[in-house]
Amino acid sequence: MFSSLGDADPFDRHHRLVCSPLYSARQLAIQRLIIVVYGGATLVTSLVYESVVLRQGNIWFSYFTHLTYIGLFSYFLASAYHGFNYKPVPSSSYAHPLQRWHRGLQVMHMLLLSTVTTFPLLVTICYWALIASPATFSSPYETWSAISLHILNTVFVLFEIFTTNIPPLPWITLPVCLVLLLSYLGVAYITFASQGVYTYAFLDPKTQHSKLAAYIVGIAVGHIIIFVLVRYAIVLRDKISKFARYHEEDTQHQGPKEALNEWEEVEWEDAGQRESAGSSVGRSTSEVK
To answer: What is the DSSP string of 205-255?
Structure first.
């Protein structure tokens, strides 16, 4: 199982979780930290406003949108931490903290990666296709909330997919993601039983009837499609980027080797020139004799 989630020994052998094909690991960590700051501010603002102003704080954690955003925030926070502690070393050594952590935490990180690169895309599609209405932009807060939670979440995911070296999503995480989606139904119906509110209107069997099953199956199929598209988008990115022009490991370890080869080539050329000159002198001496 471990080998199907990444390089078994050491984990993330090529340091793909902390590197980018476009910029250095430190620059990537800084950009991830910026997302963390904005994401954290968004979560706090949303929770406080809906608790104090809208009086809906008791169901805030029941929304799939908020749960996926918390996951996104957590992923970028962990990735930024590992990126700032990244030290380029040979692939057989430990370069960032996650490589030294317990195997269970490594597995959880890969599962988190699979959820944060697929669930937010599903949230965005479902929101704008099923939930959005004229009231979505009825006030400055509603407008900001819709943009932050249902547009920028996808922007953050696309940033992670196309501008980093994260590996293709492991197939073994797909059924886990589907189980998590199914588990959310329990959260939604427990919330209705305890608070008398459906987090999403399309989950109400009294109004949706047979459509409810279609929605559930459709969302599951939609997630499978998104998972496959994300996985092969990463594969395509790898083929285009060739793992990074500015990979710190390459600059630290291949650079000196290339310089040495150039020095050896110059020395070889100089030796060849001296040998050629010596032969010419020898021939000239023989001719004089």
So the answer is: HHHHTTHHHHHHHHHHHHHHHHHHHHHHHHHHHHHHHTT-TT-HHHHHHHH
pLDDT recorded at residue 266:
37
pLDDT, tens digit, 9 for 90 and up, residues 9-45: 679 988 999 999 999 999 999 999 999 999 999 999 9
Residue from 243, 255, 227 nearest 16 by CA: 243
From residue 226, alpha-carbon distances to 17, 168, 221 in Å are 21, 13, 9
DSSP alpha helices (H): ranges in the chain? 2-5, 25-52, 64-84, 103-116, 119-126, 140-150, 152-163, 173-195, 205-208, 211-241, 248-288
Q: Is the pLDDT assigned to residue 268 strictly greater than 80?
A: no
Q: What are phi and psi of 85, to 5 degrees?
A: -100, 10
pLDDT of residue 49: 97
Q: At what angle do helices 173-195 and 211-241 cross, to 10 degrees?
A: 140
Q: Are 62 and 192 in contact (CB under 8 A)?
A: no
